Amino acid sequence: MSQFPKARFLLSAASASQFVPDEGTEVAFVGRSNAGKSSAINTIVNRRQFARTSKTPGRTQLVNFFELSEGQRLVDLPGYGFARVSDSMRQDWERLIGDYFETRGSIGGLFLIVDVRRGLNDGDLQILGLAEAYELPVHVLLSKADKLKRGQAATALQAARREVGERATVQLFSALKRTGVDEARDRLTRCLK
Ligand SMILES: Nc1nc2c(ncn2[C@@H]2O[C@H](COP(=O)(O)OP(=O)(O)OP(=O)(O)O)[C@@H](O)[C@H]2O)c(=O)[nH]1
Ligand SMILES: [Mg+2]
What we know:
This protein has helices at residues 37-45, 87-103, 122-133, 150-164, 181-191; strands spanning 8-13, 25-31, 63-69, 72-76, 107-115, 138-143, 169-172. The chain has a 7-stranded mixed β-sheet, with helices on both faces. The longest helix is centred in the middle third of the chain and has 17 residues, at 87-103. The protein has 193 residues and is of the alpha/beta class. Strand 5 (107-115), helix 3 and strand 6 form a beta-alpha-beta unit. The relative contact order is 0.18. The mean pLDDT is 92.
């Protein structure tokens, strides 16, 4: 049974004018293309293909809004750092993300999804900077933890914690093996208050 039985997709926005009303609280999932944002959302909400996943990085170029319960939302933001996008696509992304942070008073926190094998990149560090500027709490999911051996994953967790310091909390996560789901749900629930 899902902890979020009333969860439903609201809409996909290509620009700020299409965002849902800025009321209640929402948590945004951000991260590099293909990091596992949509998969993490599906696992946390416990619904298969709730947020659409893909093997082709850079597919989600829209801001997808989901309602968990009245006044509580999840937002799947388009991924960054995909090498093969054009300059104009990159500019569209920057405008959309910039507008998102600028206009949403309802953001209660960010979930930053980072592939555990890759660690934090420049885009991720930019997001940490934005979060600091807007005074938003950040929780990092080190995703695809199933791809590493236990010891390697523990080392990656330590390294990421050292790197982000006070700027974020960090945990290991696997959508495939459902590792770290309870911790992620707890953190999400707290951000939504
Ligand atoms: N092994 C493993 N693969 C995963 C995990 N999470 C996601 N993946 C795979 O990684 C790929 C990308 O996952 P998505 O959830 O679509 O990633 P995304 O960050 O939403 O990607 P974009 O929307 O394109 O930015 C898919 O092929 C997933 O099946 C995980 O925990 N373990
Ligand atoms: Mg996605």
